[in-house]
Amino acid sequence: MVDPKTFYRDFDDLLKRITHDETGEGFVCSILEAVQDSFGESLRIVSMRLYEERGGEFVLINKFSQNGRVLAKRLPRESEAVQLVLKNGSYIFSEPQVSIDVGVSDQGEYAIPAAILIRSPEQRWIAVFELGAGWGREEVTFSLNAIRTALNFRLFSEAIKTELEQAAQIQRSLLPGQVPKVRGYEMAVRYQPTEIVGGDLYDFFEMGDEMFGVCIGDASGHGLPAALLVRDSVIGLRMGIERHLKMVHSLQKLNAVLCRSNYSSRFVSLFYCEIERDGHLIYANAGHPAPFVVKGNEVQDLNATGLLLGAIPEIKLHRSFANITPGAVVVLYSDGMFERENEKEEAFTIQRMKDLVIANQEKSAKEILDVVFDTVEKFGNSDKWEDDSTLLIIKRLAE
């Protein structure tokens, strides 16, 4: 039985060490050694290993235990177990169906693997803990998540020195770290802020096997005020969708929240859609530049169905519909893409974007994105982007 008073006192000492120890080479390893020394017995940690991301896998770089057993020297990034850790930040593999240690059931003594994701702006690691008999879920979950949060905060804080850079990291943390995999579809996205913090947003919503949601938006202005609007918009929309509110109602509620804000620049254009696996697309467009669907030489614009959010307390907004046939490509973008100018002060234009997608629609979603984004960048002589620019491609695969 863990003595709570002693445990939390020692744990507070560990968190202070994470906060005050010098970072650099060996910092993460030294903290994990402290975890093993101070909490190995109370948390029933019998073994720990640290993997560093290199290319498409996580490679073992250190081992903290007294036994000589190592089950895996490499963890493929695309494996189901690693994806669970990347998605959740921490994961206890207490069910035998999926394990980050595929041979854990073959050893002579009881062990349950648990893993946490540790990350800095430049690097990611996975720490794997083997839990022996008698481990407690509450203590382990609390401890590993607290260690993970403290380590990640320290690593990012050390690399990000100014308040503006910290705001940028907070904003980036709100945007999806990876594109979800959806059966029957390919998706790719790229975001290019013009300043350290930007005013564009995008998000994905997983709704089971038969439907998924996507949004893209653009807050007026640049810099920190726009970034704060992005934060409010992303969180507000997620809350509405997670509560299973209808899309129009979710956007209207978000509009009311933005209207109550005190930002001098508080307008947000927002496009949100839900796509069924059979290709039916339902959307609401609050003043955002019209996404478009390409199939062959045909182009369908998904035009605005209401006003910008944040302009007036109550807005009228309605849904509209489209159909994505196999092979069709949906293009979502912010105005920084088509407004980028060349040396003659000519804008790239939406029509050029449509022509590029038509010419490259047989390629994968990632290839289409790269062609369009790279062409727009070169059009502006590869100079600094004057406006935040986001491009999101959805392609329905041929059946």
Short overview:
By secondary structure, the chain is of the alpha+beta class. The chain has 10 helices and 16 strands. The protein has helices at 4-20, 27-39, 80-88, 137-159, 163-174, 223-242, 247-259, 335-338, 350-360, 365-379; strands at 45-54, 57-65, 74-76, 90-92, 112-119, 124-131, 185-192, 200-206, 211-219, 268-276, 280-286, 292-295, 298-301, 320-323, 329-333, 389-396.
Key attributes of the depicted protein:
alpha+beta, Beta-Lactamase, 10 helices, 27% strand
Care to describe what's here?
It is a single chain. By secondary structure, the protein is of the alpha+beta class. The protein has 2 domains: 4-158, Beta-Lactamase; 164-396, PPM-type phosphatase domain (Phosphatase 2c, domain 1), CATH 3.60.40. The protein contains 10 helices and 16 strands. The chain has helices at residues 4-20, 27-39, 80-88, 137-159, 163-174, 223-242, 247-259, 335-338, 350-360, 365-379; strands at 45-54, 57-65, 74-76, 90-92, 112-119, 124-131, 185-192, 200-206, 211-219, 268-276, 280-286, 292-295, 298-301, 320-323, 329-333, 389-396. The strands form 3 sheets. The protein has a 6-stranded antiparallel beta sheet, with helices on both faces. Helix 5 (163-174) runs parallel beside helix 6 (223-242) and helix 9 (350-360) packs antiparallel against helix 10. The mean pLDDT is 86.
